[in-house]
Amino acid sequence: MARRKKIYEGKAKILYEGPEPGTIVQYFKDDATAFNAQKKDVIDGKGALNNLLSEYFMSGLNQIGVPTHFIKRLNMREQLVRQVEIIPLEVIVRNYAAGTMSKRLGIEEGTQLPRPIVEYCYKDDSLGDPLVTEEHIAAFGWATQQDMDDILSLALRVNDFMSGVMYGVGIKLVDFKIEIGRVYDGDFQRLIVADEISPDSCRLWDIETGRHLDKDVFRRDLGSLTDAYTEVAMRLGVMPKTSTPVTKPTLIN
Ligand code: TYD
């Protein structure tokens, strides 16, 4: 059997060369990292859950006309996506204060913001993904003004879609991060949503109880991460309520 060519291995995913030119196979690992990889663990079932959830969000976005890199899910761990040139920015949208914004500005976590706030971080692990302004982005040529207009519009459309989907299942979308890729269609280029959208890159709070259903469960040691992600998947109907868990069964002698 021919071995696939690995293109890149990140903290939570591996990218392999896809079957057609311009495609990539995205493999979701069970590895969890936080605080710029200072905290690490392997969490059984996380990769499969994120694969299913990212498929659900990305294919929903495609359906409503927000372009994404997602083509199809291949199996429990892998999905086929379009190859893109990643813009080196983490695009963060916030509806409620939390995390670094609460720390930076002294706003209590959970405070509703007057309107969605979009922030940009420069994608560089060795620098800890520093917050940057549009001035830095333009001056250093990471994206043009036209790109920034398109990125803002994509980010707000993803926010409306994700907030609505989550609201429908009793979950508050506090904030999230997306990545944007550039694709070329003949003489034209356009920007599309890339990477993943999953509880690894969102803050999701139960509307009734405030329970955290996202990676903060791992960051802040709040219990089982798989239980939290499974809860999101079950509420969305992504995983049938009676299906066998995606974690490995414990073998009894
Ligand atoms: P933020 O509060 O800035 O950072 P932290 O998660 O370290 O407290 O994060 C805002 C949201 O964006 C949160 O849902 C996590 C997500 N995010 C990522 O997934 N990856 C990143 O590199 C960054 C900077 C944020």
CATH superfamily of the largest domain: ATP-grasp fold, B domain
Give the helix proportion (percent range). Answer: 25-40%
- Any ligands, ions or cofactors bound here, and which? thymidine-5'-diphosphate
Beta-sheet strand percentage? 25-35%
Q: Could you say what the CATH architecture of the largest domain is?
A: 2-Layer Sandwich
Enumerate how many helices there are, as a single number.
6
End-to-end C-alpha gap: 34 Å
Let me know the average pLDDT.
Answer: 95
Largest sheet: 7 strands, antiparallel
The whole-angstrom Rg is 18 Å
Overall geometric form: globular
The low-confidence runs, each spanning 5 or more residues with pLDDT under 50, are: none
Number of strands: 14
Q: How many domains comprise the coordinates?
A: 2
Task: Please provide a written account of the structure.
The protein has 253 residues and is α+β, with helices and mostly antiparallel strands. It folds into 2 domains: 6-83 and 225-235, Phosphorylase Kinase, domain 1 (2-Layer Sandwich), CATH 3.30.200.20; 85-206, 2-Layer Sandwich (D-amino Acid Aminotransferase, Chain A, domain 1). It contains 6 helices and 14 strands. It has helices at residues 46-63, 99-105, 134-139, 145-168, 216-219, 225-235, and strands at residues 6-9, 13-17, 23-28, 31-34, 39-42, 70-73, 78-82, 85-86, 89-96, 112-122, 131-132, 171-185, 188-194, 202-206. The strands form 3 sheets. Strands 8, 9, 10, 11, 12, 13 and 14 form a 7-stranded antiparallel beta sheet that branches. A 5-stranded antiparallel beta sheet has the order 1-2-3-7-6, with helices on one face. Helix 1 (46-63) packs parallel to helix 6. The mean pLDDT is 95. It binds thymidine-5'-diphosphate. Thymidine-5'-diphosphate is lined by residues 90, 92, 98-101, 121, 129, 175-177, 201-203.
